[in-house]
Structure formats: C-alpha cells, structure tokens
Amino acid sequence: MSMRSRVVVGVVGAGLFVAGCGGNGDATPAGSVSASGSPAGSAGESPPGIAPGEPDPHGVRYRAAGALPKGPEKAGVYAATGSVSHARAERLARALGVAGDVRAEGGEWRAAGLTIARQAPGSWSYTATDDKCVDRKGCSAPGEAEARRAARPVLAALGLADAPARGDEVQGARRVVQVDPEVAGLPTDGWSTRLRVAAGGTVVGGAGRLELPRSAGAQRYPVRSAAEALAALNEGAGKDGKAVPLTRARFGLAARTREGRPVLVPAWLFSVDARTATLAQTAIDEEHLGSGAPRHPGGAGSAGPGTARGSVPPVSYAVAGRKLSLRFTGGVCARYRAHAEEGGGRVRVHLTEEKEPGKVCVLMAKELTRSVTLDRPLGERTVVTTAGEEVPAA
Can you say whether the dihedral through the CA atoms of 68, 69, 74, 76 is positive or negative? Predict the structure, then answer.
C-alpha cells in the first residue's frame, strides 16, 4: 500500500466545486479548485519495486491549480457532553426493530444486538440477531431507493432525518446507507452513521454516534489557511512523486480525540477525483488537542520506561483465515500494536500507539497495517472498536 501524507481518511462523494460554508458567525467564502496533473494509481496499489506497507521514496503530491477557498481566522472544537438517557437509547432500539428491554450494564445501554455507550457522544453498534441473509445464500442487496426508505426511521431517531444520505456502497447481500452530518453548517468527516440494509428493506446492522455536538467550546484557535494545510499534506513527498489533482476543498470538521474522547476539530477537507476518499488535514495546532490518549487505554502489553501511550482508530479491516489486519493512519516515529477481544458476535479491536516524549520527528502521517491472530475465523462476526463503533471491511 503506497504511503499518503495525510491525517485522516474518510469516505465521501467527491465534487467539482468548493462549497461555501461557515458556522457560528465564521463566514467562509465559496471558491473553486481546478487541478491538473496525472491521475493517481488505484487505491492500495504500491509503486513498482516497493513492498506493500513500505514508504514510497518519491511520495504523492496533491496539487490544486486554481485559487483555494478562504476559511475563518479562528474556530473552536466541538464536543458532545453529558450522558445518553434511557429514553434516547430506547428510541434508537425501537427504530432498529429491537425487541425487549433496554438495560444498563456498566457504562453501556444494551439490548438484543445493540450496544450504546452511556457517555456522550453515545457510540453505538448494532448487529441483528435474526438476519436471515447472514450466509448470503439466495439473497441479494436491495436497491438504493429501498435501502434509503428502510433507513429513514433510524435516521429520524438519530436526529438525521434531513441529512443527505448516500447508498451506493454494497457489501455482499447488504447495501450500506451512510450519512455524514453537518454541524453548525460545516461538513464533517469521520462522524458517519452507517446502516446495513438487507433484502426486503430490513436494517440488520449499523454503527455511529447517538449525540451530535451542536456548539463549539468558548475557546477559539487560529486557523491555518487551505494553502498551509495543503503544504502540510504534501510534507515528505518527493518532487518526483505522482501529481494527484484535488477536485474539492472545504473548510469543515474532522473527528479526532481529546483526552480520549471523540471531538470534531476544525479541518480542511480535500477531495480527490480519482477516488471517493477525503483527505482531512487538521486546521489548528495539534497542541490544542492534548495527547489524545484515552483516560483508560485498553489492550495488552505495556509501554517501556519514558514512553507515552495512546490509541488510534482503525480505518478498516481485512481478514484472511484467522488473521485480522487493521488499517489506520499513524506517525512515522511511533510504534503500534493491535489487540483483539472476542466475544459473542463481535470482535473488539484496539490499536495502541507508543512514542518517546520529546523525540524530534517529522510531522507526517502514513497508512499502516497491524495484524492480530483470532482464536477462530472472523466469519459473520462484526469488528468494532473498544467504544463499540463498527469498523468497516476494506
């Protein structure tokens, strides 16, 4: 897999024009990005002579030939606070068609196949216990219109009834309906709700966050320009690397962690015409986010003396037999380990990051993969994070 100099990769539809957007009085003028250059290779393809997972010495350079849009001078971080009420959890359960009581178990609300974190933003995941197409025999994915209709009650229960939904992704005998909500008029990346719909218009799985941050904290931070963000995106790329055109640039919000909790931070969201990925480059200094390490990091193993330890979210997974490989974006100087906890119909995964405090390191992110061996093949089990968020298959 070729390396990309980027922070976060999400999935959105690529457009041809920059959307003007702003929130909380921060106006963002509209603009357009025209680009030129040779197209990138297929996603996941390594350049000749470079092994998968190894860095490309030439790198990939992203280029916008036209004027980039302007963003606000300052912006804040959005966080969901408080806890998820029983009524809120029950409303989602009923919309999903989950029968029986919704009960409290430790820090979660639980029902048949449904788990919701009680602490905001209420990360949740669902796997139907009566999915008749679990083995895919005699089943085919529903059409996009049917899948959207089936998703409406669930999206309404989540407060996303008016949010644009896309349903072009098919996973075997299921179609995925995805919503990337707006917050304060800004597009988001990494705060998706994904619903899996089977034949007959039945929602058989999904994941997301129950609460959507509505306002930013009082503190405002200086925002880097789109040009500065693009330069950061290209850090570490050689002059001889492939020139990849950018077709869209928007000021928005990207999911990150602060003190181990999910937040939405100001970011520039760049789109590439050759694929449906979004390159999200944080638009404020990382120091404003703290270490990002969770208060109670999970996983096996221990960091060595003087080592800072945190966690990173997996982007997707691949499986071969009992080997489960997790793809994620990490730094060039940190060490990463994958861990898995198997139980019921889920495999909970965790990626730990270890790095030496104070060590001088180039600020460049790259795509990485770490693997773990399961006790038995994954089969139809769902892969989720320790917070209960579903990890999509690659």
Answer: negative
Between CA 285 and CA 257 the distance in angstroms is: 14
Listed residue (37, 42, 40, 35) closest to 18, CA to CA: 35
Q: What is the pTM of this model?
A: 0.63
Angle of helix 144-157 relative to helix 86-96, nearest 10 degrees, comes to: 160
Rg value, the chain, Cα: 21
Cα(269)–Cα(285) distance, integer angstroms: 16
Cα 295–296–297 angle (5° rounding)? 105
Question: In Å, how far are 169, 179, 258, 293, 333 from 290, measured between CA atoms?
Answer: 35, 29, 6, 8, 18
Give the tens place of pLDDT for each residue, 363-386.
455 678 899 988 888 988 889 887
Q: What is the pLDDT of residues 148-176, one digit of tens each?
A: 999 999 999 999 999 999 998 888 888 99
Residue 29 · residue 68 · CB < 8 Å: no
